[in-house]
Amino acid sequence: MTRLNIRKYINQNKKNAGYQKTYARLVSVDTLDTNDLCRHIQKHGSIFTSDVVKGVIEKFVNCFNELLLEGHKIKLNGLGTFYLSIATKGEADPKEFTASNIKAVRLKFLGDKSKESEYATQILTSQAQFRDVNTLVGGEDTLESGGGGSTESGNNGGGPVNP
C-alpha cells in the first residue's frame, strides 16, 4: 500500500499553545498535470484514450470557470464543492464602496463530508498510512523547525502519526 510522506517539525511560535510540540506536514511527491491525470485514468481500464479524456477535462475546466463566474457553486459528488470568494478593502462609507474595493477573487474548495464519500475525513484518516521522510533522507529521526502548528498542512498534533 502506498504511504503519504510526512516531515516532522517542532513548533517555534512562542505565541501558540503548541509551542515546542512536535507536529507533521504532508510532503507531496510531485504535481500531476492534466496529461498525467489522463494517462492515469486510461491505465485504470478506461475505454477512452488519454486524448479523449483530456478533451473532456479541458471542456470541463472551461465550463467550470464559466459557471463559477456566473455565481454558481460546483459540487462534484464524492469529492467536494468548489466556490469563489473575494478579498475586499474596507470603506468607512458604504456609498464609497465600489468594485475597485475588490482586490482578489479566490477559488475555494470544501471537501465532501457525506458518509458515502471516499474522501470524507474519517475514511481518509482511517485508510491513510504514513512514512516519515526525515528517516528516509538521513536514516535518523531529524526534526525541522516549523511555524505555528497549522492544521492546514498535515497532522495537528491531535493524534498519533505512524511513520
Report the sheet with the most strands, covering strand number, pairing sense and barrel closure: 4 strands, mixed
Extract low-pLDDT stretches: 149-163
- What does the average pLDDT come to? 83
CATH homologous superfamily name? Answer: IHF-like DNA-binding proteins
Number of domains: 1
CATH level 1 name: Few Secondary Structures
Instruction: Report the strand count.
Output: 7
Supply Rg: 21 Å
CATH architecture: Irregular
For the terminal residues, how far apart are their CA atoms? 14 Å
Fill in the CATH topology. HU Protein, Chain A
Percentage of β-strand residues = 25-35%
What is the chain-wise order of helices and strands? Answer: EEHHEEEHEHE
Helix/strand-derived category reads: alpha/beta
Oligomer: single chain
Shape: flat
* Share of residues in helices: 25-40%
Key structural traits:
163 residues, alpha/beta, HU Protein, Chain A, four-stranded mixed sheet, three-stranded antiparallel sheet, 26% helix, disordered C terminus
Helix-strand layout with pairing:
Layout: E1 4-11, E2 22-27, H1 34-43, H2 50-69, E3 74-76, E4 80-88, E5 102-111, H3 121-127, E6 130-132, H4 133-138, E7 144-146
Parallel strand pairs: 1-6, 1-7
Antiparallel strand pairs: 1-2, 3-4, 4-5
Helix pairs in contact: 1-2
